[in-house]
């Protein structure tokens, strides 16, 4: 029975899924054009028509995955906004994509061009989203106006990254609730005075 030729979004999804599977299983070095073509059941010329090389393919895939993973909706309060963001990170890290996230760190460390794009497009986007979240909290009055935005913005996520990459400690909802209710909310509350 002949196979149906895939095009457009369907083919793109198959290719990027193959990249993620190879990356999670073998790290960045396992993502070759040959391996991706085989895993996605397509040909290398199809890949080369879309991406100039494996780095471009890897970069586009990682940026899309990372940028789409964390919610940024306004839930109505700083607490619930932060719970949504950190639960998104926790789900990403503790779920089946945890190995992929570790591989992303390896790939970024090994490829200056990927690192530059990742920091600008993904990390920059995340910073802007959390800064907007904090500004909403200040405007609502549930976050004090003099918070150190750069520190607060990174605080919860940095603990989750540390668990993922350094300690291997559990990343679960109890950790997220502790970070939000025992650290972030008290630290940013309008009644908390800076000395």
Automatic annotation (TrEMBL):
Keywords: DNA-binding, Transcription, Transcription regulation. GO terms for molecular function: DNA-binding transcription factor activity; transcription cis-regulatory region binding. Gene3D superfamilies: Homeodomain-like, Tetracycline Repressor, domain 2. InterPro entries: Homeodomain-like_sf, HTH-type_TetR-like_transc_reg, HTH_TetR, Tet_transcr_reg_TetR-rel_C_sf, TetR_C. The keyword Transport does not apply. Residues 9-69 form the HTH tetR-type domain. Residues 32-51 bind DNA. The keyword Transcription applies. It holds the Pfam family TetR_N. PROSITE patterns: HTH_TETR_2. PANTHER family: HTH-TYPE TRANSCRIPTIONAL REGULATOR RUTR, TETR-FAMILY TRANSCRIPTIONAL REGULATOR. This is TetR family transcriptional regulator. It comes from Mycolicibacterium obuense.
């Amino acid at each position: 029975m002949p196979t149906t030729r895939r095009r457009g979004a369907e083919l793109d999804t198959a290719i990027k899924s193959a990249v993620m599977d190879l990356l999670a299983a073998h790290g960045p070095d396992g993502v070759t054009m040959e391996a991706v073509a085989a895993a996605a059941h397509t040909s290398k010329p199809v890949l080369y028509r879309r991406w100039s090389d494996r780095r471009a393919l890897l970069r586009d895939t990682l940026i899309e995955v990372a940028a789409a993973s964390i919610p940024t909706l306004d839930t109505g309060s700083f607490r619930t906004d932060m719970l949504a963001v950190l639960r998104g990170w926790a789900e990403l890290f503790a779920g089946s994509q945890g190995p992929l996230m570790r591989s992303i760190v390896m790939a970024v460390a090994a490829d200056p061009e990927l690192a530059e794009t990742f920091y600008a497009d993904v990390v920059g986007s995340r910073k802007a989203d959390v800064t907007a979240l904090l500004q909403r909290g200040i405007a609502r009055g549930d976050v004090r106006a003099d918070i150190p935005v750069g520190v607060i913005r990174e605080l919860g996520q940095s603990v989750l990254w540390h668990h993922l990459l350094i300690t291997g400690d559990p990343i679960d909802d109890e950790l997220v609730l502790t970070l939000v209710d025992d650290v972030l909310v008290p630290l940013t509350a309008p009644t908390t005075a800076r000395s």
